[in-house]
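tokens incoming
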């Protein structure tokens, strides 16, 4: 994306370091008035909120935070210069997408890592690696077709082998072989799309869950730790599936400890560490891998007001209501990019954003002189 911005000279139209604090619809002039933190005001007939679905990190909310004498970090606001954990004892709170990616890397550096997990999720091997020259040439040689396949796939992720039968039609051995092939490939679309009913039939879904459980038990040497890592709270695909590099293997290290905080909840941070209902874990640093104020965080952080001065936060008091994640009633000519109610973070984000950009462009181009609705 940086390459595209530089290649097509897009940076000249971007004001970096500029925080928007409000956007008010002016009914008399039928325009949006946008104000920035430094007092600059801009007006426009249209206001497009390309503010990101995962751009605002959750605030640190832990009793005793002010008492802790060590360092605190958020994966959502990681220091650009990096962090050196050499020789330190580190607690990591959270095992979502950020947690499963950071835990193996921190474990390689820190003296000891205490992972505090509430709800284990599904995570698949990412198999990140440098592409070979041959692979790069193959992609570029067929780039137009690959882009078309992405743009015409349900989630922007091409399905090369559409399923033709139910998971329950195959026997255990055939199912396992089919799942293993897709596990080795590292593509979520291929695993969830191995059969026609993985995401529509609980019995079919249970066969994938059983397979993933078997892989966790195969990788994690300690049976008790493996059992804590098994996702049981929801079906496969019901929440975003994570991707990792060496996550489960990290728990085979002597310096990594897993604490189930659903059984022994965190009570507070102390001066020297993290306390649960069962014990206190002395640490030098705490990493909060607690994620983002997703979907609505960036929008509700601004003072957005529509017709009659209605605040967006008031309109969405019981949850966001939108039309296809593109707009919300009472806020004329305000468009949302990959907003709540759209495929958004459950899809190939770049493909979804491009589709929204083009739709909004097509919508506004012939309506430059139309009355807001």
């Amino acid at each position: 994306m940086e390459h595209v911005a530089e290649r097509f000279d897009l940076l000249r139209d971007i004001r970096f370091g500029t925080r928007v604090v409000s956007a008010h619809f002016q009914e008399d002039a039928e325009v949006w008035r946008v104000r920035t933190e430094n007092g600059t005001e801009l007006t426009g007939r249209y206001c497009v909120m390309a503010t990101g679905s995962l751009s605002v990190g959750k605030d640190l909310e832990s009793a005793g935070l002010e008492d802790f004498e060590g360092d605190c970090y958020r994966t959502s606001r990681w220091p650009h210069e990096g962090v050196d954990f050499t020789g330190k004892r580190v607690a990591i709170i959270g095992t979502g997408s950020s947690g499963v990616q950071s835990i193996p890397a921190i474990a390689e550096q820190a003296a000891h890592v205490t992972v505090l997990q509430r709800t284990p999720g599904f995570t698949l091997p990412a198999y990140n690696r440098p592409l070979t020259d041959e692979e790069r040439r193959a992609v570029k040689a067929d780039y137009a077709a690959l882009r078309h396949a992405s743009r015409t796939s349900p989630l922007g992720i091409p399905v090369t082998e559409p399923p033709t039968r139910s998971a329950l039609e195959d026997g255990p051995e055939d199912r396992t072989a089919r799942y293993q092939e897709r596990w080795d490939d590292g593509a979520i679309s291929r695993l969830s799309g191995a059969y026609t009913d993985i995401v529509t039939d609980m019995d079919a879904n249970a066969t994938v869950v059983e397979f993933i459980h078997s892989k966790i038990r195969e990788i994690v040497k300690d049976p008790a730790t493996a059992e804590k890592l098994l996702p049981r709270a929801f079906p496969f695909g019901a929440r975003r599936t994570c991707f990792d590099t060496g996550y489960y293997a990290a728990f085979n290290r002597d310096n990594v400890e897993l604490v189930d905080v659903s059984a022994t909840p965190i009570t507070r941070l102390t001066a020297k560490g993290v306390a649960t209902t069962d014990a206190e874990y002395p640490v030098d640093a705490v990493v909060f891998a607690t994620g983002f104020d997703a979907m609505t965080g960036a929008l509700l952080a601004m003072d957005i007001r529509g017709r009659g001065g209605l605040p967006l936060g008031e309109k969405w008091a019981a949850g966001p209501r939108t039309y296809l994640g593109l707009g919300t009633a009472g806020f004329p000519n305000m468009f949302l990019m990959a907003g709540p109610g759209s495929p958004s973070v459950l899809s190939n984000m770049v493909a979804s954003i491009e589709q929204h950009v083009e739709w909004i462009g097509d919508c506004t181009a012939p309506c430059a002189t139309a009355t807001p609705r």
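note: The chain has a mean pLDDT of 93.
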